[in-house]
Design a protein that fits this description.
With 96 residues, the protein is mostly beta strands. The protein has two domains: 45 residues, no CATH class; 42 residues, no CATH class. 12% of the residues lie in helices and 41% in strands. The protein has one helix and six strands, in the order αββββββ. The strands form two sheets. The chain has a three-stranded antiparallel β-sheet with strand order 2-1-3. The longest helix has 12 residues. The protein is rod-shaped. 2% of the residues are buried.
């Protein structure tokens, strides 16, 4: 890790962001550290990665009482006049 990257991690800590630590040279087993010792020979440090927020969208094929077919896409589908069959056509996750 170059000096600029180390400074970025330390500045992130100063701003209140969470920092993770792992034994130097091992890119697994990262864990949160409340007060880093900044021992760069023994440890690697990084800004805690944030979970990406997303939503699952579903596409449904709906058959109505009049034999018409239509699709609805969304996270919470609702059809007040539903009288026919439904079939899930696709599911996909979209990042927010």
């Amino acid at each position: 890790m170059d000096i600029r990257s180390k400074i970025e991690v330390m500045e992130a800590f100063e701003r209140g962001e969470e920092i993770e630590c792992a034994a130097a040279g091992y890119d697994t087993n990262w864990h949160y550290v409340k007060t880093p010792s900044w021992d760069w020979r023994e440890n690697d440090y990084r800004i805690k990665t944030r979970q990406k927020e997303g939503v699952v969208l579903e596409t449904w094929l709906i058959g109505s009482h009049s034999l018409e077919m239509f699709t609805i896409e969304g996270t919470k589908t609702y059809c007040s006049n539903y009288t026919g069959k439904v079939k899930l056509l696709a599911t996909r996750e979209v990042e927010l």
